């Protein structure tokens, strides 16, 4: 089953509230760009491709009332800054502005502008799903046809909740299952937002794919005691040399995988590549509120109060650092799986050759 994480319906954006999963399936109805940006910041919706798609639909809402072009551009900038590490939204907005030039904007009334923006968002959405299916097919080619049982570690959530459907790393896992492999997934819980334990486990259970939760600190033990066939993760931004920013904890996993000779794969669409950046050192890393770590403050009850009382997970007043992402150096990545094909070795020339 593929969950619909966002849906455009009757001129509104319906968002599945991912902070409530797995406990309940609740939806938020966005009627303005501000509401969409708020949802992105609060992680009601998350995952690099989904952030881009929701942002594009947010612009359709913004065009309900026409402003000056300068004001419109400042709203686009406001949207762009909602989450700084994932590049998909930034690139999508750059493409969008190639159509929404000053001349195009000023010449057309807002109904026409809205229609163009909606077409753009719908096409982006459709394309994301197609690309996920293609890359997943390529991803299955990395596994031997003779070995029918696979153990795969993944990190964060890269499934239909984070994309238009099917997913990237989880897309490869879904496609392996569809090809008859018996896949066992080990889902890193992914502190502090628990995307692995809440979202990946939820998706895998809905799909009836065998899945075990593991804490991040367990991966070395796992790789040294069980036969792990691969680690597959997604990406939030990849620089020209293949260094990959993804959810915090990914680089630990890659370094451990190298030690145990477990192939480490990144699965993503071309929209994750930022060719303006030379290396991972240039990727901005989002620093989030310390309360997310000290109190799991994203877990709220229906009144908006924290579910976990202060002082339960850490002493009141404890200091914490909470970077949302880290960068895995390309030398640890065996291959990047894309809709254009497999990039291996992960070096600048090969990336260019495959993605053209
Ligand atoms: O903070 P999040 O939940 O938005 O982080 C998501 C990830 O790091 C994913 O791995 C990445 O966006 C790829 S999703 C196909």
Structure description:
It is built from 12 helices and 14 strands. The strands form 3 sheets. Strands 6-5-4-7-10-13-14 form a 7-stranded mixed sheet, sandwiched between helices. A 4-stranded mixed sheet has the order 11-8-9-12, covered by helices on one side. The relative contact order is 0.12. The protein folds into 2 domains: about 5-130, Four Helix Bundle (Hemerythrin (Met), subunit A); about 145-355, 3-Layer(aba) Sandwich (Rossmann fold). It is an alpha/beta fold. 5-S-methyl-1-O-phosphono-5-thio-D-ribulose binds near residues 156, 158, 247 and 324. 5-S-methyl-1-O-phosphono-5-thio-D-ribulose (MRU) binds next to helix 2 and strand 9.
Provide a concise account of the structure shown.
The chain has 12 helices and 14 strands. The chain is globular and about 65 Å long. α1 (33-41) runs antiparallel to α2, α2 runs antiparallel to α6 and α6 packs across α7.
The CATH H-level homologous superfamily of the largest domain: Translation initiation factor eif-2b, domain 2
Name the bound molecules. 5-S-methyl-1-O-phosphono-5-thio-D-ribulose
Quickly name the level 1 CATH class of the largest domain.
Answer: Alpha Beta
**Sheet with the most strands: spatial strand order:** 6-5-4-7-10-13-14
Helix-strand blueprint:
Elements: E1 6-9, E2 12-16, E3 27-30, H1 33-41, H2 48-62, H3 69-80, H4 88-99, H5 102-107, H6 110-140, E4 149-154, H7 169-178, E5 182-188, H8 195-207, E6 210-214, H9 219-225, E7 230-233, E8 237-239, E9 244-247, H10 250-259, E10 264-267, E11 273-274, H11 291-294, E12 325-328, E13 335-338, E14 341-343, H12 348-355
Parallel strand pairs: 4-5, 4-7, 5-6, 7-10, 8-11, 10-13
Antiparallel strand pairs: 1-2, 2-3, 8-9, 9-12, 13-14
Helix pairs in contact: 1-2, 2-4, 2-6, 6-7
The structure holds 5-S-methyl-1-O-phosphono-5-thio-D-ribulose.
5-S-methyl-1-O-phosphono-5-thio-D-ribulose binds at residues 46-49, 86, 156, 158, 162-163, 168, 195, 234-236, 246-247, 324.
